[in-house]
Design goal:
Blueprint (H helix, E strand, L loop, with lengths): L6 E5 L4 H12 L3 E6 L2 H8 L5 E5 L5 H14 L5 E4 L14 H29 L2 E6 L12 H20 L5 E6 L28 H14 L3 E2 L5 H10 L1 H12 L2
Parallel strand pairs: 1-2, 1-4, 2-3, 4-5, 5-6, 6-7
Length: about 260
């Protein structure tokens, strides 16, 4: 594992990628601040591990985020790694989703990452060490029908992390943006509009594959990490042949 620190902070820790990341970090010897709004899920994540401490929090509450980061650093010590995994993915055609839903997707997926990063990164820069891992998605590069709001939030995470990386080069903090294809986590269950595109391209990849790719990417100093076979190719197809990609999307969805 590329993590060489003592304290990690993981959002979205009540399930899925956040839960697995918390447990893996704890098993490697880290003290983990596990963060989520789902208190029951947090208790399950922390169950059986003295190294995981549950901190209920809504990452969209900027003031509460700043207060909690101060509390974590008082109780556990300076944060050496942040993993911004909190996300929601209710799908639907954009005109079928109400404005509060679209805004909430952006507030959690993008705004939450910004709030946590803004609270933790200054201390890392002052100490000259640390890791910031922001979870985007291949959906942050390749838009698709039913995923418009989710796409927008992940495009925002990609752009934010890229600029953040370049603004803080050579300051001792490793910053990366992980962009996986569909992953076998409960997040997929939120795709209630049943996008047919999710049935294309084979089985979702396993969460462990994503976390392993992150560690390799951090060791290499990579900005973007694309776990899974064919993920990078799909991003390149979107860049160089967007019309072809859209024709495929329309054909799959029948729209």
């Amino acid at each position: 594992m590329a993590f060489r620190g003592t304290v990690a902070l993981v959002t979205g820790a009540a399930s899925g990628m956040g839960r697995l990341a918390s447990r893996r970090l704890a098993s490697s010897g880290a003290q983990v601040a596990a963060i989520d709004v789902n208190e029951e899920g947090l208790r399950e994540t922390a169950s059986g591990s003295d190294a995981i401490r549950a901190y209920p929090l809504d990452v969209t509450d900027v003031r509460a985020v700043a207060e909690l980061v101060r509390r974590v650093e008082t109780e556990l010590g300076p944060v050496d790694r942040v993993m911004n995994a909190a996300a929601i993915m209710p799908t639907g055609l954009l005109m079928d989703q109400d404005v509060p839903t679209v805004r909430r997707i952006m507030d959690i997926n993008y705004g939450g990452s910004v709030a946590i990063t803004s609270a933790v990164l200054p201390g890392m820069l002052e100490r000259g060490r640390g890791d910031v891992v922001n979870f985007a998605s291949v959906a942050g590069w390749a838009p698709a029908l039913h995923f418009g709001a989710y796409n927008a939030s992940k495009f925002a995470v990609v752009a934010y992390t890229e600029v953040l990386y370049h603004e803080n080069r050579d300051k001792g903090v490793r910053i990366c943006c992980v962009c996986p294809p569909p992953v076998e986590t409960p997040l997929l269950e939120q795709a209630k509009s049943k996008p047919k595109i999710l049935d294309q391209g084979g089985k979702p990849i396993e969460p462990d594959e994503v976390l392993d790719a992150i560690e390799r990417g951090l060791e290499k100093g990579a900005l973007f990490v694309f776990p899974g076979r064919g993920t990078r190719f799909s991003v390149l197809m979107r860049r160089f042949a967007p019309g072809l990609v859209w024709r495929m999307v329309h054909r799959v969805e029948g729209i």
